[in-house]
């Protein structure tokens, strides 16, 4: 796979709590240069990223309920509306892991559906935090996301005990089929790991190492 094609898979990500506006501007400049799919930023950086990327064709992905997913639905909805108003084109929301593990599937489904509705045309990626889930729970979460209209299912926040694995990406792709996208994120830092995730079924990669991945640095 050539570098330009590989770049089109990547959400160029900066979610560190200490990230500065200057660092986000650099992120956006790199995204313009390499033609990444999106930049992925924290909510307070949404408007800045949207300004920096205006007219570039690079999207702005914004996290919602990040990183735990344990905020209330109305909180996630308000975050979503604010992000869209400030220029977000995609939303990466964290699934309520506690509700899923407790078996409150109606809550999980409605939580996702409310964000999807609030997002309007902005596609919603639902982050599972697979390292905290069993394979059965991952399959259940995929099914709930399909029911709720999510655009992508996503492996990890990168802030928990582990990141993406090839086996889990394959499980997610096998479960959703062609009905939605699969995003692998968390611990993906080189070209070989990126290609392995794509081969397993990921059609979007979340990483802070996008430049290194496409340039081989």
In short:
This protein has 217 residues and is an alpha/beta fold.
Question: Secondary structure elements and their pairing?
Answer:
Elements: H1 3-7, E1 10-14, H2 21-34, E2 38-41, H3 46-53, E3 59-64, H4 73-85, E4 90-94, H5 97-101, H6 105-119, E5 123-127, H7 135-148, E6 152-154, H8 166-176, E7 181-185, H9 191-200, E8 204-207, H10 210-215
Parallel strand pairs: 1-2, 1-8, 2-3, 3-4, 4-5, 5-6, 6-7, 7-8
Helix pairs in contact: 2-3, 4-6, 6-7, 7-8
Estimated structural class: alpha/beta
Report the C-alpha radius of gyration, rounded.
16 Å
Spans where pLDDT lies below 50 across 5 or more residues? none
Mean pLDDT: 97
For the largest beta-sheet, the strand count, sense and barrel status come to: 8 strands, parallel, barrel
Multimeric organization: single chain
- Order of helix and strand elements from N to C terminus: HEHEHEHEHHEHEHEHEH
């Amino acid at each position: 796979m050539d570098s330009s094609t590989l770049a089109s898979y990547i959400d160029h990500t900066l979610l560190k709590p200490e990230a500065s506006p200057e660092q986000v501007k650099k992120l956006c400049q790199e995204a313009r240069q390499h033609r990444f799919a999106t930049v992925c930023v924290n909510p307070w950086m949404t408007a800045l990223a949207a300004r920096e990327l205006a007219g570039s064709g690079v999207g702005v992905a914004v996290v919602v309920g990040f990183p735990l997913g344990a905020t209330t639905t109305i909180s996630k909805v308000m975050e979503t509306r604010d992000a869209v108003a400030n220029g977000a084109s995609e939303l990466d929301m964290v699934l309520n892991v506690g509700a899923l593990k407790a078996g409150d599937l109606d809550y999980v489904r409605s939580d996702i559906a409310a964000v999807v509705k609030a997002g309007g045309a902005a596609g919603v990626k639902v982050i599972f935090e697979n390292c905290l889930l069993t394979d059965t729970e991952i399959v259940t979460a995929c099914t709930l996301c399909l029911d709720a209209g999510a655009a992508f299912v996503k492996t990890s926040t990168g802030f928990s005990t582990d990141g993406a694995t090839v086996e889990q990406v394959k499980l997610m792709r096998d479960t959703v089929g062609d009905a939605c996208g699969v995003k692998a994120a968390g611990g993906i830092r080189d070209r070989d790991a990126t290609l392995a995730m794509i081969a397993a079924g990921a059609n979007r990669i979340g990483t802070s190492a996008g430049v290194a991945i496409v340039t081989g640095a």
